[in-house]
Amino acid sequence: MFRRLLAALLILSPLPALLPLPALAGEAHPAFTQQKARDLIAAVQKIVSPGGIDEQMEIPINGTEQWITIRGRDLNNPILLFIHGGPGAPEMPTSWTFQNPWEDYFTVVQWDQRGSGKTYNANDPAKIRPTMTLPQMVADSEAVVQYLRATYHRQKIFVMGHSWGTVLGLTLAEKHPEWLYAYIGMGQVIDTLRAEHVGYLATLKAAEAVHNAKAVAELKAIAPYPEPDGTLQLDKINTERKWSVILGGLTYRRDSYDYYFNASELSPDYSDADLKAIGKGSDLSLSSLLPDFAKTDFSNVTEFRCPIILFEGRHDETTPSSVAAAWFARVHAPVKKFVWFENSAHMMQIEEPGRVLVHLVEDVRPLAAK
What we know:
Elements: H1 2-12, H2 34-45, E1 53-61, E2 64-72, E3 79-83, E4 107-111, H3 117-121, H4 125-128, H5 134-151, E5 157-162, H6 165-175, E6 180-186, H7 192-209, H8 213-221, H9 234-246, H10 258-261, H11 272-294, E7 308-313, H12 321-328, E8 336-341, H13 348-351, H14 353-364
Parallel strand pairs: 3-4, 3-5, 5-6, 6-7, 7-8
Antiparallel strand pairs: 1-2, 2-4
Helix pairs in contact: 5-6, 7-8
């Protein structure tokens, strides 16, 4: 009787979908699966506006197949290409946590780079490994931009780089300013070796401040860091990053990255096989690209012919914001703007997503009209 009465009331309710019927005793419950969660998120994320776009595809890039997603509620909006970090840390599977509001103002492209995520699975890793060099990654980024410009008939697009992706993004800004409305760097890499040294000292200082004897001992054991010959050893990086994450250098006031990485498991864009490829791609990318990454140095690259905007977390010790800020003071560009995120470390897109959106809308998007 109660269930029939509630059902009758729900017919009159303006919000029937929000009030699930209580289960009767003995009634079977369908299992709530990971795929069910993905499907629910996909339904919420679905682009339904008549002028919008919501596509996921493989595109041919320099002899490989590479995956992109392209989403926005109005394809007339400017294109924003997001270049993920790592190397080998795709942002496509976590983009559902922050990107949706951007899609009102931009047509947003996520790209799984050579050797990363879905792109890792689309190609033979044995054939890809010898091609994993910085010049090849730059050439891939150029090809992706050219694909977007040609396919969607755009003279210019926006490029946003995050962490390792800022190496590719800033190179694009230097080499091809005519392709870009602006370049936006988040957690900008300028001088890798200096940044690693500054970050290491900050992590050691933080460990000493909280009297974490284990952290202090492990960090002191990897000194000198980086190596005197200017190289980076992966095992030492892993030690430094382990304690940097625990002490808040990756995400402010958090001691783990799991909260964000685990969000990948609910991505509507990633299958189980794609999720397994993240770790494989990270291993491939880091081992292959680390020597080139260690040599990255934009210290004397300060003249640009397109707008340059940096988003920097005040507490970022992964790619220390102090290094980027000192460099930016010497930069000359048609438009330049430096934005501090006071409650962020390295992951401001998820640490302060509202402020990222505001600055994208107020500081970045108007540049498409110039």
